[in-house]
Amino acid sequence: MAIASKAIGAKTGYIYLRGEYKFLVPKIQEELDIFHGIMKELKHNFKIQLRLGSGAYICGEESALFESIEGFRGEPRNKPPYPTTCGLFGKPTSINNVETFVYTFMICRIGVEHFRALGTKDSRGSKVFSVSGDTPKAGIFELELGMTVERFVEEFGDGDTKAVQVGGASGFCVPRKKFSDTIIGFEGVPTGGSMKLFNSSRSMYNVLHNYLDFFSEESCGQCTPCRVGCQQLLYGIEAVKKGEKNSRYLDELVKLAGQ
User: Are 182 and 116 spatial neighbours (Cβ–Cβ below 8 Å)?
Assistant: First the structure.
């Protein structure tokens, strides 16, 4: 963040932390105190404040995050204006995920050529992945981009993996038959870092129902396709499960999802 502040001339930065991770505040504040001491020694006028939100999924959208930091309900703003001209507190703002700043630091530390040597032509570098689900090696791992889902499953699967959810609830669910030809990267399935494995004991209907229930609950309600569409998808799969609709109705739900 200090590197970014030097580049754009910012004097104030903000770290936004979900309310569920409040237990991290003492450690982060301790690191910030050290950081501010370093900035003072370097005579670089840049300070970072820590702000907590309530944990709404919609605050992953940049303007909703601004609203939350400013003390309002986390709801997306109309655009334009964009953050680069009118962002946090109405000022020009650079907003990035933590990992983007980590990439910046990595490139400055190891050099451009070393960084470019990692990953593939379209997906440079490495990435931190959260591995969970039916795996004997759950945890946080840094992996090189460009690997296939098959290679990932060989490393983290339990020998009976039938699907991998890449990129979280709004990402991609890759079935076993596509493991070998699906690349984890921008030329395949871009990921936000979440990798969840499912073995044969799991009902994919239950997985789908869980995700649709989540999005129906977490929708900010501003856009009809999300507010109503997610509910209709949820009701639709429930109707098929109960036998109220035949399996051909799933084709209609796929069309709805595509809209």
Answer: no
pLDDT digits (tens, 9 = 90+) for 2-26: 999 999 999 999 999 988 899 999 9
Tell me: do 196 and 222 sit in the same domain.
no
Tokens standing for residue 154:
């060989």
Residue 168, pLDDT score: 86
Instruction: Among 44, 65, 95, identify where a domain stops.
Output: 95
In the chain, DSSP finds a helix count (H) and a strand count (E) of 10, 7
Q: Is beta strand 12-18 parallel, antiparallel or unpaired with respect to 47-53? A: parallel
- CA-CA distance, 212 to 206, in Å (whole number)? 10
Q: Which of 155, 183, 202 is the last residue of a domain?
A: 202
Strand residues in the chain grouped as ranges (E) = 12-18, 47-53, 126-133, 139-144, 161-166, 172-175, 194-199
- pTM for the model: 0.81
Burial of 74 (0-12, 13-18, 19+ CB in 10 A): buried
- My answer on whether 9 and 88 are in the same domain is yes
Residue type, 94: S
